[in-house]
Design goal:
TIM Barrel, five-stranded antiparallel β-sheet, 12 helices, about 525 residues, binds 1-deoxynojirimycin, 3 domains, Immunoglobulin-like, Oligo-1,6-glucosidase, domain 2, alpha/beta, eight-stranded parallel β-sheet
């Protein structure tokens, strides 16, 4: 069973570097987030996911952790994070931290100890071969940098050595079994980190690279799933209100088998999610469904989504998101009108949706240089645009001291302007979130069914007793059906009218029909 509170919650993802600087050093901090909690509450979001905010050399924006139990000084202190939990809870907002269980920084004390020549408590905490001249076939590794004679395996970048959960298929003597003392010690160490934060007010975790734990796992990731089952059992016993969301994008495995409450539907080329917003790396142009007149076809989404949904609908939640810190912002190619329809869809789907900071105002993807291992991801990580003041309200620091530059365009969107405009993307997003909160049939559990899915609009779908329709094209769309009889328009974007058994939709419109 999932924690009850997930059912009507919309999450807000915060990249802490770029949300709000409270002390004028040019980088966001925890006190800054606390100061913006009322904004988040006003948006209607009931939970946060904060990217790693722990001590780190920041070679991968904090996904290279040096101390799991210490807030990075640039964001404040542990006490600031406890205060953030507290202030968020006062406003009915839960807080998920980022759990990075697959690797640490190569500067983590565990890794430094494991790299020593003499055997010690941490020698088995990471994956090492038997000697410095033996590599790891088919896997990334580093040799020759340590006193220990051995090559160590990497989980992502060169700064991120892989923690040792053992190998399911063991072809070398140095490969630990999944139930070896050293692999079990890694599990205990991660549980200890989870308990540390949960005991201090944290409400759960987003799990980084959740499928990456056990090496040479089988196709169904059975051994990695068993590790997560153990973590989930611990939560069920000790912290039943805590939530776990996976970066996995295979909900049948992540939810049904590994025990996650939610699994992200990630942006992978040509999967269903990708065809909605970012189908631009395709030959023959951009066929994203929400790009006006792109020739996008909702059936491409449904073919991929429906089997995932059917397999998991009674067991956990697929999490659709507007964007995340690894993905191009949707405003890179979509206009505000297009984004309104895309968000209307994401916010009326089953599961638990996530909004990435700044997407509610249509922040743009900026073409800028890399920062902290961001590369092309950096353009989606720029400072939140609050108002027309200095650095768009993000920071008092001189502009050249900011973590990343603000969007320099004179028409860069900002929250203050859009708050005053009922037709803005921000106002529409607020209304959509409150619509979801008002109707149980729009929330996580109510049934989803595609009612009319053709090459041409409208796309009509059902959530519980509600009927919804989308017309992303620049032409009006009409649909006749006995299903429309007795229904009335409860919410529209642009315009739509229903009379008897006929629905007329204006160009680029969305409608919610009640009985
Ligand atoms: C996925 C995270 O979302 C990404 O930002 C990070 O670079 C890698 N995992 C490695 O931790």
């Amino acid at each position: 069973m999932s924690p009850e509170w997930l059912k009507d919650t919309v999450f807000y993802e915060i990249y802490p570097q770029s949300f709000q600087d409270s002390n004028g050093d040019g980088i966001g901090d925890l006190q800054g987030i606390i100061g913006r909690l009322d904004y988040i509450r006003g948006l209607g979001c009931g939970a946060l996911w904060i990217n790693p905010c722990f001590d780190s050399p920041f070679m991968d924006a904090g996904y290279d952790i040096r101390d799991y139990k210490k807030v990075a000084p640039r964001y404040g202190t542990n006490e600031d994070l406890y205060r953030l939990f507290d202030e968020a809870h006062k406003r009915g907002i839960r807080v998920l931290l980022d759990l990075v269980p697959g690797h640490t920084s190569d500067q983590h004390p565990w890794f430094r100890a494991s790299a020593r020549a003499e055997a010690n408590e941490y020698s088995g905490r990471y994956i090492w071969t038997g000697h410095a001249f033996e590599g790891i076939e088919g896997k990334p590794y580093i040799a020759g940098m340590t006193d220990r004679s051995g090559a160590y395996m990497l989980n992502f970048f060169a700064c991120q050595p892989a923690l040792n959960y053992g190998w399911l298929e063991r072809t070398r003597q140095w490969m630990s079994a999944v139930d070896s003392p050293e692999a079990l010690a890694t599990r205990e160490a991660v549980k200890d980190v989870m308990r540390f934060w949960l005991d201090r007010g944290c409400d759960g975790f987003r799990a980084d690279m959740a499928d990456s734990l056990v090496k040479n796992d089988d196709d169904r990731k059975s051994a990695t799933s068993a590790v997560w089952r153990e973590f989930r059992d611990m939560l069920d016993r000790e912290y039943p209100e805590a939530a776990l969301v996976s970066e996995w994008s295979d909900p049948a495995l992540a939810i049904n088998q590994a025990g996650f409450h939610m699994d992200f539907y990630l942006d992978h080329h040509h999967n269903g999610y990708n065809t909605l917003l970012r189908d631009y790396e395709t030959e023959g142009g951009d066929h994203s469904y929400f790009l006006k007149d792109s020739g996008g076809d909702i059936r491409r989404f449904l073919r991929d989504y429906l089997p995932r949904y059917e397999q998991t609908k009674d067991k956990g939640y697929i999490s659709m998101f507007t964007c995340n810190h690894d993905t191009f912002r949707p405003a890179r190619t979509l206009s505000a009108d297009e984004l309104k329809l895309a968000y209307a869809f994401i916010l009326t789907m089953p599961g638990v949706p996530f909004l990435y900071y700044g997407d509610e105002i249509g922040m743009r993807y900026l073409d800028i240089g890399t920062k902290e291992g961001g590369y092309q991801r950096t353009g989606s990580r720029t400072p939140m645009q609050w108002d027309r003041g200095k650095n768009m309200g993000f920071s008092d620091a001189p502009a050249d001291r900011l973590y990343l530059p603000c969007d320099p365009s004179p028409d860069a969107p900002c929250a203050a302007d859009q708050s005053r405009d009922a037709r803005s993307l921000l106002s529409e997003t607020r209304r959509l979130i409150s619509l979801r909160r008002e109707h149980a049939d729009l929330q996580a559990d109510a049934a989803f069914e595609a009612v009319r899915a053709e090459a041409d609009p409208p796309f009509v779908y059902r959530r519980g007793s509600l009927l919804l329709a989308l017309n992303p094209s620049s032409k009006p769309a009409v649909w006749s059906s006995a299903l429309l009889r007795g229904r009335r328009t409860a919410y529209t974007i642009n315009g739509a009218r229903v009379a008897e058994d006929r629905l007329e939709m204006d160009p680029q419109s969305f409608v919610l029909l009640e009985v």
